[in-house]
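Section 3.1 - Work completed
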Amino acid sequence: MAPRKPPETKKTLEVPKCPKGKRSRSPQELEQEAKKLFVKGPGSSRRYDSGCLWAGLANLQVLSPYTSIVRALHQHKLGKAAWPMLQQSLQQSFLHSLASYRIFHKAAPFDRRATSLAWHPTHPSTLAVGSKGGDILLWNFNTKDKPTFIKGIGAGGSITGLKFNPLNTNQFFTSSMEGTTRLQDFKGNTLRVFTSSGTCNLWFCSLDVSAGSRVVVTGDNAGQVVLLNMDGKELWNLRLHKKKVTHVALNPCCDWLLATASVDQTVKIWDLRQVRGKSSFLSSLPHRHPVNAACFSPDGARLLTTDQNSEIRVYSASQWDCPLGLISHPHRHFQHLTPIKATWHPRYNLIVVGRYPDPNFKSCTPHELRTIDVFDGSSGNMMCQLYDPEYSGIISLNEFNPVGDTLASVMGYHILIWSQEEAGLRKRETI
């Protein structure tokens, strides 16, 4: 007998609690519990003592006809299911698994807030985190080995960008308020300085690296963008924005395509081969507020932008001038908070972003929780919210590892590692 399809509903499903320490339940059980609890969805005023919030089944506006991944794979093998439908079924299964995500590892190694985060490209349990004081933690949380801690200069040394070297993953690039962009090893040795301002009035705010083109790109607080090759030779240094360049991103599939975000309220798309000055952009995407980030999707076909107030946008490579979707979401800017940046899931069309409740936001309710929100990248619908009452602060940075099964978050001084309950059978670990 074919599996029973869950009933469709247009009403937003209320959010059930996910008690800690219990077995993982089926989607049908979760749906029945949600109906019984009748708790409000995202933005609820109710306080929770659970490890996560789940806004799952009914928020999936287009339900896959396959309730079983095995069945979906079988149908695809027989040629009866298209690849997008199979992907949708896999994504649904992943969303159901988020109900059992908990914090299993945590660290608070810095004396100032964490400011940047990067996963190791080949070790799914290893990440690097930088702080406002210039400290860097290299942490493999699946081993009992002591993490590597690289001491920074303190005040004025904030790590603004962090990337592992794709050509040698025992090295990493950093940009900082110290006024440099450099390559370092795991012992903290500086292997090469790519840019150095020589003054405390000019610093570098972002960086990205391409293995294919073998280039490093970095942006500063004056609107300049610098392109260099891996040997440190400067290819060009141009003022492309009127104000600080908050984010630079190379397209993962077309690494000659560059996106830059700025507090001048624009995101610009560039062809690295044809940059001649500030007017040589391919597209300029105006925003209503300064922009914190612009990230290409893993397939390079879409661009995700996060402003400094309440808007997340998704653009398509087929039509840069017009966003595919606008997501209203509170994540306002605050001087003493690491800027909130939305990111893509590495395998699914999902957007992950921290919530900073705003009383002036249209849907704000009393006692709104500071959750991690997961949106569908196509519909813009809220799919899931993660929350742990022990760590109820504002979570600025969230990024899934390359495998897509573990989430790292930055909340003030804290680094939090979320994983599925079955995958983290050990007790919570703290360093």
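Second construct:
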Amino acid sequence: MLDQMDWDLLDEGLGASVEESLYFSGVPKSKPPTTDISEHEFSCHCCYDILVSPTTLTCGHNFCRHCLALWWESSHKNECPECREKWEGFPKVNILLRDATDKLFGDVVRQRRAEIKNDPKITRSLLAFQRYGDNLGRTKTNQHKGAGFFFSGVLTALSCVAVVVLVYHWSSGVVEQHDPLISKPVSRWTPEEVLSWLEHLGPWAQLYREPFQQENVNGRLLLMLSEEELLNPPYSIENQAHRRAVLAELDRVKTLGVKPPQNLWEYKAANAGKSLFLLYALKRSPRLTIFYLYLFDYSETFLPFLHTCCPAIAHIEQSVESSFLSSQLEPNWRQWAEFLVKYLLLPYQLIAEFAWDWLATHYWTSRFIIVNTMLLSVLEGCALWRLWTGAAIRTLPRKMWNHLWKMISQGFAFALLWPFIPQFVCNCLFYWALYFSPIINIDLVVQQLMHPET
């Protein structure tokens, strides 16, 4: 028994002496001594706590992702909070470091993640930071990939179509051809021009062409015609609806002093600056523009617009001349109710319905306007959706006030600068807004629909 104890002590002494000799000679041991892991080595240099979703920057420093998001949101700088070196690209989570912290400090990490999730400020900052990264990545990597080729081809094709249509209008003179009566005073109308004015009232007016031609009615005689004279020979307009329609249009001519425009090109020729203003204003703010027409151009523009978009209930036996006359009357309460609902919820639908009514007169132009109103409706819906999902709907009154002030200031600036702008420049702006604006809006709609929020 004593011998056995001696041998054990000898073995322990030899083992200790061998380990000491290996240690001092520089030879590594097979099993290194265990060391304690310090929490300081896995702490964030912003919050000085255990790293949660550790994010490594290009300079090598590590931070909690929410700490980095809060720093980015407050400073608006892409630089390291510690050494101020700018990072490249978009910082990503360090997966190896994240797994290490989850294993070593699992309870602490889970507790901190729960606290971060329940903090709305940190959640909004993380969401904004991720949106920034998505937009940055889409700009750099997806600009010419995937659907980009397809939509760029579509935009190119539509641009070619718009150019062809515009060249066709210019070459054929459709754009510049307009009735001279829209700018010539009524008192100076010749008998032929009076007949042309009568023909524009509709097919039913052809019944009374011959009496006007035989009497050689010019502009001055036209202004002196009364209901009694139209009822008696030689005019003999015995149909009450026909007579009232002629008198209603004659009252409009007396009020304006010229013939009212009958289509888009005549309206542009008679109101060059106003047509350009309305074209851009209806795109930017249709509600304010329609309200402007109600206040300052009620009888000549707003009433026909309302009757076209929200027509009264017409009977089957109603004739063409009766419908023409009804467009000059005050709207009933049903028309006002329908108009106000569309005005508040779907203002661009009103413009599309008005363009649809002119489809037979302006074939391609009406289609461009209808497509543009559909695209603008989608863009408006996406903007409202972003406000709702981003919990920023409470900022809507402030945005509406800023928009109102911006539109009013731009309107005054346009009114002041309009007389000094050359007509060629105005025509270019008019046709650009009419034909190329839908093409540009297609690309904007695609960008909105591909955005993660929408």
